[in-house]
Amino acid sequence: MGWRTVLCVGGLLALLLPLTGCFGPAPRLDGALWAEYTRRFVTAEGRVIDADSGQPGITHTEAQGYGLLLAEAAGDRDTFERLWQWTRQTLRRSDGLFSWKYGVCGLPQGCVLDANNASDGDILIAWALLRAGRAWDRPDYVEAARTISTAVAERQTVQIGGLTLLLPGSEGFVRAQAVTVNPSYWIFPAFRDFAAAFGHPAWAALTRSSLTLLQQARFGHWSLPPDWLLVENGQVSLAPDQLPQYGFNAVRVPLNLVWGGQTDAALLAPFRAFWSAPRDGAVPAWVDLRSGEVAPYGWQTGMAAVAAVTEGRADLPRPGAEDGYYSWSLALLARVAQTDLAR
Amino acid sequence: MSNLFRPCAIFAVFLSVCLVCIALPVRRAAAVTDGPESASSLPDAVLDDVTVRPKGTVPLSAFSADPGPLRLRDEAGEQNFFIPLARTAVLRDVILTLRYTNSVSLLPDRSVLAVRLNEATLAQIRLDPAQPAGEARIRLPAEMWRGGFNKLTLAVIQHYADSCEDSVAPELWTEVDLSQSHLSYDLGPLARPVALSDLGALFSPGLGGQRQVTVLTPAGPGADGLRQRALPYVAQALALRRQYAPLEVLHRDWTAAGLPADVPGAVQVLVGLPQDLAAVLPPQALPVVDGPQATLTDTGGGHSRLIVTGRTEEEVIAAARGLTLMNDALTPDSQVTFPRRDGGGGSLPLDGRISMEGGKSYRFQALGFRTATVRGKGAYQISVPLPMAPDYYTYENAKVVLKLDFSYGAGLGAGSILNFRINDRQIHGHAMDNKNGASFQDYLITFPVNLLKPGANALLIDINSQPPVSGGECVGSRGRHLMVQVSDSSVITLPEAGKAAMLPDLARFAASGYPYVGGDGRGAGTVYLGSADLIGPALTLTGRMAQAARGPVDGLQVVVGLPAPLSGQALVLATTAQLQREDFGPWAVSLSKVKAWPYRALQDLRTATTGPELSLGGLGGLLGGTAAKPALPDEEWMQQKSSLGDKAALTAFRNPAGQGDDLLTVVAAETPAVLAARVNDLIGPGLWGQLQGDLAVWGKGGQDLLTLQVSEHYQVGRDNPLLLLRLILSANPWYWMAGAAGVSGLFTLLLWQMIRRRRQNFMGKS
Question: Does the beta-carbon distance from A161 to B274 stay under 8 Å?
């Protein structure tokens, strides 16, 4: 190789180097899927519409959090910024957390329908900001993530004896010594990243306690965790004022475990057993943990995608026209998780 | 006249003139000095703890400012006793036993001693001259008592003649022995669940209040931070609820084996993280902790448990701090969380501890006084609180101006007077001699500022209302129409002042906690302990300091261990053995095994003690070269090897290892148990109010108190260097004299030179 060749290659690299900087990290989410997601669920103002909820034009913080996470994974800075600005300006409360539900009301622009927060939404928003701040070198995003995650750690955790619990919301989940929790709100990869980034001790404590509770919270024939769990006097039980189901909430538990690196076979075994049990037709969308009754309909693509990523399969089901907001969100999240786990 | 004598004579004459001139304007500056006695009119009540069905007795003298016998004079006289009752106390029975003596001149059918409770007459005791000494037992029905203060009235109606009686004749008297008269009470447990709104009542200074509390923390070094920073807040929070009454704080650690079984007192306080609590409490007793939190629960049998916890150590400390500020009345729940505000950790609010500042005027209303009206004939007293900052300083001849608004009604007779006193020092008198009554606005009284002392003071207004005597002894007036009123619109104006003080001064420490408590409520210093078993006494003392400061002291820490060097502003509690260290040698008063006592103290101690504990067998050499120079000459310092016996010593001096103005205060005794007992004696109102000087030694029950000033004063001040300089000059008037003498000498020399030159010129010319 002559010196002219070296010079040419060097010059070419010098030309390409700035271009690679402009593009940043490669997207971790298929562009076509993300485009379809935004077309179907993301409004121009920056809201993710939960079309499954039955109410028209409903947005909640969980949806905003999913939208932010997926936008970051797709490398879509504009959509991310639009989602974040709308969330920040419309839903943020004075305590740094977010009102969880927004929708149609008497006002043309819509309004906050419930000022209480949902801690999974708060955590998802903060986690997406942290990931975006790191990926795109945006200190303001990281700072916002710090503020939100600290508010969750300070205001949304309670301790009973040696257990640290995540309150699902600020109001309505503590009654005397009984605390109602939602195991699917325990987003272990976010807990891990918050602990590493900001060092608040609550995240490590939450991880420990949540894993302990997941080991105890085994109900029904399949020993599955419920959507809602009651912790009282050191004992766990099915939350009395909620449906005793493993269903649309708890299906996220295995995704959170695997994504967070909690791959203990004993923890994942009940899910795998439930999914792989011989049955006619598809895996039911929910199962009653008291009666054993199952849903008369099968799981959606999103649930199947969660199962696939939990099982470590490479081929994840692709959401389609028949899938709604929740199924699409879970399916795309499973893909992002798969990419994260492969890195 | 010789040449030598002439300048000397001129100098002497000049000096005399100068001294006369200087002496007049020299104003001896002074910090606010101690009054002769405490102005507090609060009773020195020492009441028993309530436990399950406690029965006890308390002498009536506990509710009286005057410990002596009560003498009820004249035709009709009465005395009120205000008896506090904890709102959580359930009275089963109360019996009043009265021991009295009456004049033998009384008419038995017309002379009675009446007993009233909350204005209801419960008994009338016939005063019989044939049996002039008697004892009576009166049941005071439980249902007539109410939470808070109860008014017990002893009233006499007494006559020596059926007609034409002199209503103030000396024969008209009845005496009640307050020390032998007592209340016997029987208390039961509270029948309802306790809430945090009951916390103040549980530690009420009245009947049924807790005088003792045990604070428990987890064992091990993991809880050092809690012991160091949270416990002082807890002790202060509970002591402040005792108001003026002492609170003994005991400390114990719990282990994984459980809580100690033999914890005294009806309230135990657990301070720890939730995981620590889980080791000793059943699951159903564990609170759900969502931040700095306090929980008060029943544990059965009339016992209660206060839990101070949080998710982190900082939150536990914040919870303890929150307890010092919590308004019990506004906390009807059994559990409270103190949300941490952004940027929290600021100064504690100063509510409840207003201190008057120099150059400002205060309405009495702002000082907590409300318009007071007294009716009827007799002697009454109105007390106006005058709280002073611990480091208020101004010149000695500065004046305080009172502009009083008061009035009296028509029909007052001869002998009706008002006397105004500041801390028992008379400052003014006024005869109420206008038969048509009078009303005064801005009635001007001035008095020297040095009658005020640091901390609590009182303007005492003694009122003597007498009806007019007209038409001879058989015509009198009952005096029910008499009325005197003092308005809360009255104003006090203080002279301009700086912030400075003379230290060491145990009286100032007792009155305000100064210098360990600053005017802003921040703690300025650390409490060091010789060993962990002194945490209890340290907390007891910390609580008393908060009472003296009339509010929580922020940031005060209790550290186990005596660092080397022991620098900074510090308060040390240790046994004499723990003080036996080389670097403690320069202390003005050494309290180690080899003690250095001022000789005068030795003499006084020998006089006071009866035991062999202070034998002088091991007299050593003299103490010399101390950094903090003692006020006494070296020859008056003695070393000896002996014990303190059952006594304790408290001494304060400039810290030789400190910087600048740091004060070191040491409390020492032979053993931790003795130290705990003596600290418990120390915080009692009898002993605490008598602290003065910089050395105090006392024995069991506060007996044989000795106080001395043994080391030199020094000045501390935080601003206004000019004022501070004047304080220094005021405290050392000889500086003025020396300066004046120096200037005079120079001037004399100059004068002499001029005269000599003139003379030489004159002699040369001639």
Answer: yes
